[in-house]
Amino acid sequence: MGAEPDECVPERPVRRRRxxxxxxxxxxxxxxxxxxxxxxxxxxxxxxxQLVWAAVTLVALxxxxxATLRQLWRRQFxxxxxxxxxxxxxxxxREYLAGAVIAVMVGTGQALEGYAERRASRDLRALLExxxxxxxxxxxxxxxxxxxxxRVAVGDRLVVGPGDVVPVDxxxxxxxxxxxxxxxxxxxxxxxxxxxxxxxxxxxxxxxFGLRAAKNAAESTYAGIVRLAEEAxxxxxPMVRLADRYAAAFVPFTLVLAGVAWLLSGEFLxxxxxxxxxxxxxxxxxxxxxxxxxxxxxxxxxxxxxxxxSLELLGRARTLLMDKTGTLTAGRPVASETVVAPGxxxxxxxxxxxxxEQLSPxxxxxxxxxxxxxxxxxxxxxxxxxxxxxxxxxxxxxGRLVRVGQLExxxxxxxxxxxxxxxxxxxxxxxVSDDVGPLGAIxxxxxxxxxxxxxxxxxxEAGLQRLIMVTxxxxxxxxxxxxxxxxxxxxxxxxxxxxxDRVRDESRRAITVMVGxxxxxxxxxxxAHVGVAMGATGATASADVADAVLTVDRLDRLxxxxxxxxxxxxxxxxxxxxxxxxxVVAMVFAAIGRLPPVAGAFLQEGIDVLVILNALRxxxxxxxxxxxxxxxxxxxxxYAGEHAGVRDVLARLRDTADLVATRPDAPDCVPALREVHxxxxxxxxxHEAAEGRRLYPAxxxxxxxxEATATxxxxxxxxxxxxxxxxxxxxxxxxxxxxxxxxxDLLSALxxxxxxxxxxxxxxxxxxxxxxxxxxxxx
Length: 779
Description:
Elements (H helix, E strand, L loop, with lengths): L24 H18 L3 H28 L6 H13 L3 H22 L7 H6 L3 E5 L5 E5 L8 E4 L9 E3 L3 E4 L1 H4 L5 E3 L4 E2 L4 E2 L4 E5 L7 H14 L12 H19 L2 H11 L2 H20 L2 E3 L2 H9 L2 E5 H5 L5 E7 L5 H12 L6 H11 L8 E6 L3 E6 L2 E6 L7 H13 L2 E6 L4 E8 L6 H10 L4 E5 L4 H11 L3 E3 L4 H14 L2 E5 L5 H6 L2 E4 L6 H6 L2 E3 L5 H36 L5 H19 L14 H33 L6 H30 L1 H4 L6 H22 L11 H26 L11
Parallel strand pairs: 11-18, 11-20, 18-19, 20-21, 21-22
Antiparallel strand pairs: 1-2, 1-3, 3-9, 4-7, 4-9, 5-6, 5-8, 10-22, 12-17, 13-14, 14-15, 15-16, 16-17
């Protein structure tokens, strides 16, 4: 076994795109030219003003006409055709000011739309950079040579060093400890015995090992993942602008009305007036502004959406697929429980294991060292440390030989039961032994994110109707996480190709969002209508192919993004519909000769101002979650930090309950009971009472009412009652020994308190502490 240094990996910085003012230069120049024309007109130089306005109209017409012709050539039909016809009409009837005003409106719409849909590069650079390009190959003479990956042939004997990526699919020649999360999504490290197959792309998390190539590089697993991502990205259909959906009905209506006005009146000017007021600026302006406002808001919430079309689709999504590891769970193992041999000391076992693991490069050791330091244990520098690949680490701590890793030999009965229990709960076991035998085991798990269950509920409230978890994990582990967070369906042992197929199937039924954080998720993210990468901890490849990136390591920000996207889209549609309704009324007046082109252009500007002001409402509102006051955040932070101490008391409580259940006559039974009762009374009860007095009232605002914490306050009463019940039993033990007839009721109180308190802590962390909008998961 081994460990990394007990430090957090720095977050990968998000590359922010600098504003290129050249992209706004055309609009700026058009506006300045129109203002220059106004100045010339007011100065009495009317012919010069008309010439300037005509030039502005012509400058806007040429690119707009070219873009419209290209759309028609590709059999795409949009509302831009009306703007082109209006520009042409104003030139024909010499209404140059009206044409210039339309030119500014069109330029504004294009600039805003370009800003909204301008996206970062979606190449697969990170995926390709991570792909191995060389391999270490054994030579016939016993040496090792570095060769290009394409020269590796089936049957070659390779060497995979510590931390290396396995270059090709093959068979390990000795035991190897691997991180397979890149390919399978499985969060737990696995040990492959000699002769077992391994896939390319997995990471060697232990000592170096030999590998016999079973496939060449082009046919190996990791190369297939790269091809899947490229194929899925290449076949993504282009997004259709919201404005173009109205073109099918609005454009024919406008042309018919303009033609009828011209035919009945015999005045071409009326047809031009109709086209001028029909220019779809409420669509070209209000829609991008609402979407850009949504993009800005979700960015402030830590969600970087790369284009307006993706935000619009996010607002219409009905199905969400989520990877488990790193998305619904923390994505890194933590020490969840330390179990010791009968009569053993939990802290001493954890201290011995963490002391040995300080010098180990194994990733699981990080969890052990972190757990020991959090509990304030004094770690000793080990000596004579050796590592056996696939078996563990051995060293001396304070002169005592300690082995951390696999359990060797025939296990005692308690160890056999613990092994079955770990397998049943889907947790990894790290055994701690000395010369005599096993001292205990540390159970490791990938915990569910505290905010996962609340986020799932909020996603449903935001309109997502079907939530599916896809993972490469085992069915038992996957089902347990699925039940905890409350998703509709779960797909376990899911390969990258299976994820692609499932996302494709769901996408045929409804707008689908896929969330993941690993390289193995990249193809599925690219296939979904909206791919969302957990960018704070996820692989760069996933972030590169995704349409949105969570730049903070919190899943609840996705729920914020969905709510904001739905609100922004609703405002955009509302602005477009109201604006177009007003435009239709103006078109009727223009058709009957009551609205000349210049007046129509300025009236259209007034309509634009109205719908733009409405579109700016997307900058605020739409979120169901209430903001948390700074003082409340401090309280959340404080009481969340105290949970570590409460959980330490819980561990002692469970040990004591087990002692009473198995050895009630032991001389250390009653002293252990008294000690755990003292800690419950001195540490846990004051903590719960302080929460009830200070934290719960402060949460009434963010949660909506005082009733939201009522059940938690009732649990406080039950916790206090059970502690008093244990104390009552202790008061009757004058001789320091438990009476047999008291044991059943005492066990009921001990195990009942253990269950109630664990559930209570979990509910607080999921429902209350996850309200803290800090950039990391709540402590």
